Amino acid sequence: MLLDIQHLNAGLEDGKQILDDLNLTINPGETHVLMGPNGAGKSSLGNTLLGNPVYKITGGKIIFKDTNITDESTDKRAKMGMFMSFQAPLEVPGISLETFIRSALQQRTGERVKLFQFQKELKACMELLNMNPGYAKRDLNVGFSGGERKKSEILQLLMLKPDFAILDETDSGLDVDAVHVVSKGIEEYQKRTGGSLLIITHNAKILEGLNVDKTHILVKGHIAKTGGGELFKEINTRGFEGYL
To answer: pTM for the whole thing?
Structure first.
């Protein structure tokens, strides 16, 4: 298995418990969808997996690539092949999108990035996402529209090629066309890398072109039910009422 979450309990530094005895296993190449009502702990799970210091683990383990990373720092988890896209990507003045990705790629691989090949691949990925190539020279997310910020996240996904990616409502606030482009980018990432995905979403559109292996319903920090792709369709039709 690629990721094995065992009896995970976690909460905020003020002592508020959010994740409650959560168990989840993801194998290489699998696509998992995580759903649940607002406040269920979906984003908290993503942040805890990536080692956000705001969240404190009070019990359980996170095993990634046969290594216990429960107490590891965020940068070490990222270098091991973890990635997360955020609901609201932050602006980072003073560093261009191109420089940011190039630096992250060098940290990820531990190898010097060849500039010509890097820029060639960056241009191709930006074309795939219908991104203006001029955005590569602009400060990261500064002055970007909501849609361009989300595309920037998927661009990083394509360039960094992580083994495991958490997509936290990457589709939120996007129009139909932008969701289609983002979905195409996610599909391309999986084709190129065979990487695993944990997609936190309420929108079936972003799943087009992907084979969903498992759908999980998170309620009050605990997985209330796990099923296949059909469970996602059921929730879209009936909602979460039967699981609250």
So the answer is: 0.93
Q: Are 155 and 125 in contact (CB under 8 A)?
A: yes
Q: Cite the beta strand spans of the chain per DSSP E.
A: 3-12, 17-26, 31-35, 55-64, 67-68, 82-85, 92-96, 139-140, 164-168, 196-200, 214-219, 222-227
Instruction: Give me the phi and psi of 99, to 5 degrees please.
Output: -65, -40
At residue 51, the 3 state secondary structure works out as: coil
DSSP letter assigned to residue 45: H
User: Nearest 5°: CA angle at 31, between 119 and 176?
Assistant: 65
Beta bridge partners of 200: 34, 168
Sheet (strand 3-12) strand order: 17-26, 3-12, 55-64, 67-68
**How do residues 38-91 score in pLDDT, each as one tens digit?**
899 999 999 999 999 999 999 999 999 999 999 999 999 999 999 999 878 889
Q: Is the dihedral of CA 163, 117, 76, 128 positive or negative?
A: negative
Query: Do the beta carbons of residue 141 and residue 64 sit within 8 Å?
Result: no
Residues in the chain: 244
Instruction: Read off the amino acid at residue 183.
Output: S
Given its phi and psi angles, is residue 144 left (phi above 0), alpha (psi -120 to 50 degrees) or beta?
beta
